[in-house]
Amino acid sequence: MGTFLKNENYLQARINIANFILEALSEVWKSGFMHVVGAATSSTMLAKTIADISLTDHVKMIKTDKDQIWDPTNKPLIKGGIILQVEDLITTGESSLKVRKAIRDQYPKLPILFVPFLPVVVDRSDPDNRITTIENSRVLPLLKIDIQTFQPDNCPYCAVGSEALRPREGNNWNRLTRKN
């Protein structure tokens, strides 16, 4: 199986997306930020690229089975340091909230400030219940995809025999991506 883009093209594509995010953000947010964070592992490289371009600090997270946690190699946050959170994909907003919780858990006495916009490359949240904000940050998607989410007991695909799979359970991700 071949790859869609060669490695050097992945980097250039990520740089282009990062620049586009920064340009879109500059239209709605005139203040600055000191740190950039994205959920591990999905948004780590996007956050790092944006941090590199904007000459700010990249805040790294570590993904566990159920949570995002603070990477101990990060530089310490300082009072008043505004954080730009970015995501490559938003479906439920759960990862974004876990990142914010992890940062607050690391600094329980420090007021943590996030840019009031959360740039997202792809918003694939349920079009009937679109995720528009994460806490006080308005989701700023570059692309919206309408993929409706169904409960298994109300799913038209399940009704005709398709098996409902939760990607994060058991071996389901491998089954969905055909990686055996």
Summarize the biggest pleated sheet: 7 strands, mixed
Task: Give the helix level as a range of percent.
Answer: 25-40%
Order of helices and strands: HEHEEEEHEEEEHH
Low-pLDDT segments: none
What is the helix tally? 5
The global form is: globular
Mean pLDDT: 90
The radius of gyration over CA amounts to 18 Å
Strand content: 15-25%
CATH level 3 topology of the largest domain: Rossmann fold
Give the domain tally: 2
Structural class estimated from helices and strands: alpha/beta
CATH class of the largest domain: Alpha Beta
Measured distance between first and last alpha carbons = 14 Å
CATH architecture of the largest domain: 3-Layer(aba) Sandwich
Number of strands: 9
Q: Secondary-structure blueprint of this entry?
A:
Layout: H1 7-28, E1 35-38, H2 44-54, E2 57-59, E3 61-63, E4 68-70, E5 82-90, H3 94-106, E6 113-114, E7 117-123, E8 133-134, E9 137-144, H4 156-159, H5 172-177
Parallel strand pairs: 1-2, 1-5, 5-6, 5-7, 7-9
Antiparallel strand pairs: 3-4, 8-9
Helix pairs in contact: 1-2
